[in-house]
Automatic annotation (TrEMBL):
InterPro entries registered for this protein in UniProt: ArsR-like_HTH, HTH_ArsR_DNA-bd_dom, HTH_Metal-responsive_Reg, WH-like_DNA-bd_sf, WH_DNA-bd_sf
HTH arsR-type domain mapped to chain residues: 3-96
GO biological process, one term: response to lead ion
PANTHER family: HTH-TYPE TRANSCRIPTIONAL REGULATOR CMTR, TRANSCRIPTIONAL REGULATOR-RELATED
Protein name per its UniProtKB record: ArsR family transcriptional regulator
Recorded GO MF terms: cadmium ion sensor activity; DNA binding; DNA-binding transcription factor activity; lead ion binding
SMART domains: HTH_ARSR (SM00418)
Amino acid sequence: MEIITQSSVLARFGYALSDPTRSRVLLALREAPSYPGDLAEMAGVSKQSLSNHLTCLRGCGLVVAVPEGRRVRYELADRKLGDALTSLLEVVAVRDPECCCATTSTHVDGMACCS
């Protein structure tokens, strides 16, 4: 049995946000529930690709699938996730777009920003 810790919850959240498509999907679902076809179109990806992203987001516990007859609607698993995304957007600022952990680089003060 997996022991769920605060750090593992944050790691899952970070992993989900680490992909631009998943981030766009979460932001869209923050606004309103939606259907896979609409989300794929909004994100500019194929339905198959979106399906993989939704599987990841469900596995991370961030979204849920709500059956509606023959269709499935997706929404955030908890409205607090939308609040958390809003808060995160309000406090996160990238000072140096070249130093965002995509590559290891050095700050002006000589410290590595990503190690």
